[in-house]
Amino acid sequence: MRSAVYQTLAERPANETFVMTNALCVGASREREAWNQVVDLAIARNVPLIPIVLAADIEENARRVQQADRIGRKLADSQVLKEAMATDRIQEPDVAELLVLDVTRLEPDAAAAAIRQHLTRLDASDLEPAGIGHRQFRNEHLTFLN
């Protein structure tokens, strides 16, 4: 399904912007492949790819995943989240345009404003199309100790 959707998106005009949301870990091959598909789409369209990571401390994140609107759609088990984050971490592509935004204490409107400000600060004329650099992650070789 994802491949068919991405193929359709690849055929859209380069001036159309897409927002894609994911929570993808570095250590999960399936999640690395999912990110690679996003990168491939941007490369095929010859457009910039601006990754934005919304981070929160583990206790706040655990509280949020239990919200009723997530059940049946997304991870909703805080223990599973804590176990996963003890041994892995969210992908942070190692590119200059990356924004890692700590939303632990931010209201949604403030987070949206910070993202908008980041996008405004980026000079569109200086942005390069996505490339293989988007497949590299910051601190990719971190070791996790329990």
Q: Indicate the radius of gyration in whole angstroms.
A: 16 Å
Overall average residue pLDDT: 90
Question: What about the largest sheet?
Answer: 2 strands, parallel
**Secondary structure: helix percent:** 25-40%
How many domains would you count in the coordinates?
Answer: 1
> Segments where pLDDT lies below 50 for 5+ residues?
none
Please report the total strand number as a whole number: 2
Layout of SSEs?
Blueprint: H1 2-10, H2 29-45, E1 52-55, H3 58-65, H4 78-87, E2 99-102, H5 108-121
Parallel strand pairs: 1-2
Helix pairs in contact: 1-2, 3-4
Key words describing this protein structure:
5 helices; two-stranded parallel sheet; 2 strands; globular; mainly alpha; 146 residues
General description of the model:
The chain has one domain (2-126). 40% of the residues lie in helices and 5% in strands. The protein has 146 residues and is mainly α. Strands 1-2 form a two-stranded parallel ribbon. It contains five helices and two strands, in the order H-H-E-H-H-E-H.
Summarize the structure.
By secondary structure, the chain is mostly helical. Helix content is 40%, strand content 5%.
